[in-house]
UniProtKB/TrEMBL annotation, chains A, B:
<keyword id="KW-0378">Hydrolase</keyword>
<dbReference type="Pfam" id="PF13419">
    <property type="entry name" value="HAD_2"/>
</dbReference>
<comment type="similarity">
    <text>Belongs to the HAD-like hydrolase superfamily. S-2-haloalkanoic acid dehalogenase family.</text>
</comment>
<dbReference type="InterPro" id="IPR036412">
    <property type="entry name" value="HAD-like_sf"/>
</dbReference>
<dbReference type="InterPro" id="IPR023214">
    <property type="entry name" value="HAD_sf"/>
</dbReference>
<dbReference type="InterPro" id="IPR006439">
    <property type="entry name" value="HAD-SF_hydro_IA"/>
</dbReference>
<dbReference type="GO" id="GO:0019120">
    <property type="term" value="F:hydrolase activity, acting on acid halide bonds, in C-halide compounds"/>
</dbReference>
<dbReference type="InterPro" id="IPR051540">
    <property type="entry name" value="S-2-haloacid_dehalogenase"/>
</dbReference>
<dbReference type="InterPro" id="IPR041492">
    <property type="entry name" value="HAD_2"/>
</dbReference>
<dbReference type="InterPro" id="IPR006328">
    <property type="entry name" value="2-HAD"/>
</dbReference>
<protein>
    <submittedName>
        <fullName>Haloacid dehalogenase type II</fullName>
    </submittedName>
</protein>
<dbReference type="InterPro" id="IPR023198">
    <property type="entry name" value="PGP-like_dom2"/>
</dbReference>
Amino acid sequence: MKISLAFDVHGTLVDASSVLEPLASYVGGEAASFFETWKYKQREYAFRRRMMEDDVDFSLCTRQALDYACLRHKVEIPEEGKLALFDFSKRLPAYPEAKVALERLKEMGFKLFAFTNGPLDEVKELLRHAELEDCFMSIYSVEGSRTFKPDPAVYESFLRSNHTGHRFTWFISGNSFDVIGAKNIGLKVVWVQRTLDSIMDPWGVSLDQIVKNLDELVAFFRDK
Amino acid sequence: MKISLAFDVHGTLVDASSVLEPLASYVGGEAASFFETWKYKQREYAFRRRMMEDDVDFSLCTRQALDYACLRHKVEIPEEGKLALFDFSKRLPAYPEAKVALERLKEMGFKLFAFTNGPLDEVKELLRHAELEDCFMSIYSVEGSRTFKPDPAVYESFLRSNHTGHRFTWFISGNSFDVIGAKNIGLKVVWVQRTLDSIMDPWGVSLDQIVKNLDELVAFFRDK
C-alpha cells in the first residue's frame, strides 16, 4: 500500500504569521503579542464550543478571538479593518519551500492530503492562491462534523474518507496540539518546528520526527 | 423552594492572582504576563484533554501549563520552586469581603454551594484554610466525571447531586468561560468582574447581573 502524507495547512503549508504585517498598521509594536492572544483564544474558543456542544464553525471562533484580542490589548480595529484582516487570512502565502517540497514528495510516490480545521471552501481557495492545490489527492476539512482536531473522531474520519490506514499514514503539522492529537490515535507524526520559539506542549509525547521545514521533510522520507 | 447559589472557587472566592508574589521571585518583572500564559494554557489543556478523551485530572493540566509557561517565557524554575508554587496555590487567601458576604447570604436564607473544576480534597482544604468551608451546604467537584466545566453534563450533574432545580439556582463566577457555560444550560448567572481588566468573552451572551465583588452580590440579592 502506498504511504499517505496528511498535511495540516495553517502554520504548516501557509504562513499564518504573515498577517503580522497588516496587523501592525492597527496594533503597532504590540502586533506579535496581539497575534499570540488571537491565536490562543481562537483555539480555546474552538475547544470550548465543542465542549459546550455548541455547534459553530471555526470562522466564528476566529472572529470572536480577534474581538477578544482587541479588548485584551485595548485596541480598536474598525469593522473594515477586521474584514481586511480576514480577507488577508484567506490569501496567506505558502512557505517558500512548500511547493517544490510537495512536488518532490509526490514524485517519490507518496499520496498527499491536506487536512484542516478550516472551512472547506476557504481552505481550497487558500491553497489555490498559494499554488499548492494541485499537489493534493484531496483536501479534507472537519466542516460538518460538529467537532475539530484534536478530537480523535476527526482523525479517524479522515482515514476512513480517504481509504488510508493507520499504519500507512504520516501526519505532518507545525501545530503542537495537532501533532499530539494525531499521535493520540496512533498515527506516525512529524512536527515542523520552523523556529526555536515554536513550543511543543510538554506532555511527554514522543514524536517520530522533527524537521525545521519541508525540505528537511523531503530528506527524511528520501532516507527512509 | 429555597434559592441555591452555586459559587465557583478560584478567582471567585479565593484570589488565585496572589500567587504572583511568590512567582515574582522566580520570574521577576514578567510575573503578570507569565501568570497569564500559565492560566491560558491550564484551561486550554483541560479543554483539549477532554476533547482528546484523555482522562486526566486538573492538577496535571496545571503542572504542564506551568512547564509550558517556563518554556514560553524562557524561565527555569527549579523543581522545588514549582512544588512551592503548587503548595502556595493550595492555600490561596479568600477575597477580603468573601467570608462576611457568604455569611450574610446564608442568613438571608440562601443555600450556598461551592462548585469547582479542582480536585475535591484540594478544594476542601483550600476553603478550610480560607475559612470559608462552613458557609457551604456542600462542596462539589467535577473530579471523577472525566470532564470539566463548561461541559453541560457537569452543571447538570451538579444540579442533580444537590437536588436543586434550574429555576432555583444562580451560578456565580469570576471566570468568563464558567459564566458562559452555566448560562448555556439555562442557569441564571452573575459575573464577578473584580477589575476592569477582567474580560467577558465577546460571544454576545447576556448575563443576568454583573457585580464588582461579593458585597455587591449581597446587595443585589437583598434588593430582589
